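Problem 12. The chain below contains 332 residues. Write out its predicted structure in token notation.
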Amino acid sequence: MNTAVLIDAIVRQTTVLIASLATASGQRTPLSRIADQVFGDLVRELNDQGVGHKVIADMFGMALRTYHARVSRLAASGTDQGRSLWEAVLSHVEEAGPVTRLELLHRFRADDDATVRGVLRDLVDSALLYQTGRADATSYRAADPKETFGRRRDPETLDRFVQAAVYRHGPVARAALRELVPIEDDALLDASVARLCAEQAIHRDGTDDEATYDSETCVIAFGDPVGWEAAVFDHYQAMVMALVSKLRLGRRSAALSDQIGGSTFVFDVWQGHPMADEILGYLKAMRVAGMDLRKRLEEHNRAHARPLETAPLRVVAYVGQTVQEEESDAQD
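Solution.
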């Protein structure tokens, strides 16, 4: 199969998911940051896989100079360490605005002037900032908070996200955790980590920048009113991890003996079908089996410590189901 076709199809399905999340429960979550976020994440991941900048620029269909200019805008700020220049400029205008271009160039004097100007153009084009005036006297102010992505997330929801990320990827350093749970305000992440450590939901090893975090368990109970975002995140990343792991093995076919991969089953029934209840109850049956398996495993592990000479294995299984009611021939 043409890989480009597969990528296009996956991107399309991902945009459907993002659009559904952005409008869930009648909300209208702004999406103006998505394009830069996707670009930055793709560049970082391609770099991690050993792909050079010239090749990446070609993959995006960009001239190398244009590519480097865009990467610079998303790179870490020389003025505000630990944050991208894009995030740092937006945060400063939100907190101190309105501010002039001259004031911003002075505030971010440790960064290249042309790059700062480029970031300001991006933010205005994204409708995250409004500008008035001309030249260095141009004044910038943040868009109405109702129009932008709120920084003050519900603490419980954020804690579930952080715990799920730590459990799935631990032991994980703080810098890596910030990539997994991309929060603009570092203080929010630090506060969440502190709460989870105090509750012993996650464990800290080491101090300061050398600290890593791990979690032995992360269970989002059925009916939990604040856990659905973390559950969606956990389910989606579990699916992606399985697909990526298989691709990195170089396998493009499946076998019954596979320990990494996934299967999709489609069942066609109708109202009154003798197997309808069994088919519709498939998700419940899988959940019950999974919970029973996990319970028996936890009981065994409490009674029997892992031999030190053996390597630990973490097996991640994901289960999903949807039901689509189609129009009958009689209705047609």
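Discussion. The first strand starts at residue 99 and ends at 100. Students who got a different answer should revisit the alignment rule from Section 12.3.
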